[in-house]
Amino acid sequence: MQSADLSGGICIRFPLASDCDLVGVVELHTLQELTLTEQRMVGSVLRLYGNVLGLLDYSERDTLTGLLNRKTFDDGFLQMAGLPVSSPGQVDIVPPTASARRPVPLHTTWLGVIDIAHFKRVNDSHGHLIGDEVLLLLSRLMRNAFRFDDRLYRFGGEKFVVLMHCENEADAMCALERMRGHVQAFDFPRVGKVTVSIGVTEVRSGDTPSMAFERADQAVYYAKQNGRNQTQDHATLMAAGCLKDSQRDSDVEFF
Questions:
Q1: Distance (Å, rounded) from C-alpha 14 to C-alpha 202?
Q2: In order of start, what are the domains of the chain with their CATH numbers?
Q3: Choosing a second label site near 198 at 20 to 30 A (CA), which of 13, 79, 160, 214?
């Protein structure tokens, strides 16, 4: 697409696409109109760049569902929590003066763990191809239930994770309950009704990825042991005396 530039030149817009999606638009400002050969050259360079983006994206995605994979979780966790990212699983130690200059997230970060109920039974009764279809359809329900900037992960098997910014516990619970309701209402081909158990925790100051995940996973375990098809908040369960704080501060990766 070509249009007049406010500076008196010409602005040409080229689509930037990866293998599977439109990534953005590149604007090229010139003093004179590009020849057809020059336009083709720019398009060829952008296609090569799009292929590189596609390869990088492919390495970060679960091959079945297209959601982010678990090896990208640590960096995503630190970015969502507003912490500096160094090597995977490590938090940079910064002086207090540098920490004071770091932007503070406007909203708190919440981590939800989603577990499909009786998924082994689905595989045993209908086969792994149908089980894979359930996982694929669940990932689509997740995309519909959450916002564009929420980070959605498949952790392998029947377990999924979401990282999101919310103002408070009520908003986080509302988002996860919406997801649970979508799954409950959906008719999965050959399988019928499927439900999920969800656990959620607020990301605390000083949390490592494994610490926050462990708390949300404890809430999932409680939900599974008390009827399934429900969303439980770790802090609420702790306040009610339903869980004991078995939090371990460990640098050992949980996957």
A1: 41
A2: 2-59 (no CATH), 68-239 (3.30.70.270)
A3: 79
